[in-house]
Amino acid sequence: MQQNITQLFKIKYPIVQGGMIWVSGYKLASAVSNAGGLGLIGAGSMYPDVLREHIQKCKKATNKPFGVNVPMLYPDIKKIMDIIVEEGVKIVFTSAGNPKIWTSFLKEKGITVVHVVSSVKFALKAEAAGVDAVVCEGFEAGGHNGREETTTFTLIPMVKENVKIPVIAAGGIGTGRGMLAATVLGADGVQIGSRFAATKESSAHENFKQKITRLKDGDTQLTLKELAPVRLVKNKFYHQVQELYQHNPTVEEIKELLGRARAKKGMFEGDLDNGELEIGQVAGLIHEIKSAKDVLNEIVSEYESVKSNL
To answer: Which of 119, 171, 192, 284 is the most buried (most CB within 10 A)?
Structure first.
């Protein structure tokens, strides 16, 4: 397996669990870290005091490295960063913003910084900002995406050709075969979100987890590009969004439909009709709710098996 990512994070396997909103609490992060990957707490859906609680609980639940994913659109970003420093977090993944703003601050505190990008242009900017690695996320992913709709398999080799820092592939990867394919294209490791969303330790609502296991190809769509591109399950809310688009809505009208806490309603509270359900295209390969440890072990086992048989 690729060595520079395992050395950078001091982990056994070059597998990072995505820091997803309403899904990635301390239970999931610690379970992935204990199994040999890098678990991430998703700060994007947490108030500062809630994040502190999750970090403290994660430190008790694992003695392995773990990190925090911080979307820089967060309104209380200064409080979040201060808590991360105060609690001694050693790894931070930033996303949805300019890496220049916080990278130096974090690096000065001895923190390893990784930034999520969706294009070669932003990968180069992240490298120039001083990050230690980049996550290159193709539009197959469930979280906030690039507007260009560049796929993972085209993005990874293009970024790898242009940067000198480690590249972590994300988007559409949920199996050992997918992981091997990404490494063949030049990835130094992989970040997996959707597959870990449907695990026993995920903080997603059971309704959402079961919904994930029933999804097929074509059941999700990238939308809401005027705000922040996100891949949604085609439920009642999604169709309301599409109906609104028929009338060339303003950004304000889209925000009004979205309302407050729409993602919480769907993914955390389990409203499968009116909630915003974010998941990647790889959901079509997820058929069962398992423990995070079993998922990670299956990915590693398949990776090694397929690689040896090539």
So the answer is: 171
Give the orientation angle of helix 120-129 with respect to helix 100-108, to 10 degrees. Answer: 40
Q: What is the pTM of this model?
A: 0.95
Lateral strand order in the sheet of 112-117: 15-17, 189-192, 167-170, 133-137, 112-117, 91-95, 66-71, 39-42
What gap in Å lies between CA 192 and CA 82, rounded to an integer?
A: 27
The first and second tokens of residue 257, run together, are 């439909």
CB 159 within 8 A of CB 117: yes
Closest CA to 40 of 51, 32, 50: 32
**287 neighbors 28 (Cβ within 8 angstroms):** no
Q: How many domains does the chain have?
A: 2
Is residue 161 domain-shared with residue 16, that is, in the same domain? yes
Per-residue model confidence as pLDDT tens digits over 101-157 = 999 999 999 999 999 999 999 999 999 999 999 999 999 998 777 778 899 999 999
Answer yes or no: do 11 and 67 share one domain: yes
- Domain of residue 270 covers 206-281
Contact (Cβ atoms closer than 8 angstroms) between residue 21 and residue 96: no
Co-location of 161 and 297 in the same domain: yes
